[in-house]
Amino acid sequence: MGQETNLCTIIGSGPAGYTAAIYAARAGLKPQLFTGKEPGGQLMITNDVENYPGYPEGIMGPQMMADFQKQAERFDTEIFSEMITEVDFSGPIHKLMSESGREILTHTVVISTGASAKWLGLESETRLMNKGVSACAVCDGFFFKGQEVIVVGGGDTAAEEATYLAKLCPTVHLLVRRDEMRASKIMQKRVLNTSNIQVHWNTSTVEVLGEEEVTGAKVINNVTKEESVINGSGFFVAIGHKPNTGIFKDWLEMNEAGYLITGADSTTTKVPGVFASGDAQDHVYRQAVTAAGTGCMAALDAERYLAANEII
């Protein structure tokens, strides 16, 4: 007897992966889910989630992900706490290899490997994570309403974060390490025309200041080498995200930043039976609720694929 072939295998365990599991399991697809090296994804480093519907008092990110996992397990999703390290999408049956050496054969694959925020790599940044240091203004900006904040970055992400925060905060300090921004012209114009965004050119962060919470940043002027302190209770790192899609590079289409490309109004990739959801393919919204939505779409797309090919 040959090895059993799964109907549906999910790679990744953030809101997209767990939502895909819930829908796939309820459709009778008996999904297997591999959590990857960051079970629960970016929400595991998010203290307070106040913008996800259904939690009127807000919820801690790790607790929310534990709830998602329980719900997926309730419908008999089989969860493996390991990474998929290799894929082979050459045939109609897809082959996956896990870090423990297990080979998985599957008719459909839902990719929900997410993206990781890029950080500056400072010890103080790590120490003050969730104590004023954040990589998402839309997620956390509300907590700093009426307070002075600092944003690091010179691209579109930084420009968007700064203009968003400028609606909530009296002063937004934007630290740009060169003498120009690499953001699109329209975003640069928006930043420069917003009176309460103060741009600090040629400026890099030396250290995020504060003991129990952020109080500001020590910065250096890259031209004059002069150090100074900028006060602020929020420190937003907006130097981009890196999608966790490296293992798919030989098989699937991606944009120049590594985000997976899907069909219009669907989660389909160019490989039949392989679907992409969440932050692995969404570089625009990057929210838990939109990731969960695309996880649902991917499970429905997988179910339709299996039905159309008379596998179920």
List the helices and strands and how they pair.
Blueprint: E1 5-11, H1 15-26, E2 32-34, E3 48-49, E4 59-60, H2 61-74, E5 78-80, E6 84-88, E7 94-98, E8 103-111, E9 115-117, H3 123-127, E10 133-134, H4 137-140, E11 149-152, H5 156-166, E12 172-175, H6 185-192, E13 197-200, E14 203-209, E15 216-221, E16 227-231, E17 234-237, E18 241-243, E19 274-276, H7 288-308
Parallel strand pairs: 1-2, 1-8, 2-5, 8-19, 10-17, 11-12, 11-17, 12-13
Antiparallel strand pairs: 3-4, 6-7, 7-8, 9-18, 14-15, 15-16
Radius of gyration: 21 Å
**Termini Cα gap:** 20 Å
Provide mean pLDDT, rounded: 94
Structural class determined from secondary elements? alpha/beta
In one word, what is the shape?
A: elongated
How many beta strands in the DSSP annotation?
19
The helix tally amounts to: 7
User: Portion of residues in helices?
Assistant: 10-25%
Strand content: 25-35%
Major sheet size, sense and barrel closure: 7 strands, mixed
As residue ranges, the low-confidence spans are none
N-to-C SSE string, H for helix and E for strand: EHEEEHEEEEEHEHEHEHEEEEEEEH
Keywords:
312 residues, alpha/beta, seven-stranded mixed beta sheet, five-stranded parallel beta sheet
Task: Give a description of the structure.
This protein has helices at 15-26, 61-74, 123-127, 137-140, 156-166, 185-192, 288-308; strands at residues 5-11, 32-34, 48-49, 59-60, 78-80, 84-88, 94-98, 103-111, 115-117, 133-134, 149-152, 172-175, 197-200, 203-209, 216-221, 227-231, 234-237, 241-243, 274-276. It is an alpha/beta fold and 312 residues long. Helix 5 runs parallel beside helix 6 (185-192). The longest helix has 21 residues, at 288-308. It is elongated, with a radius of gyration of 21 Å. The two termini are 20 Å apart.
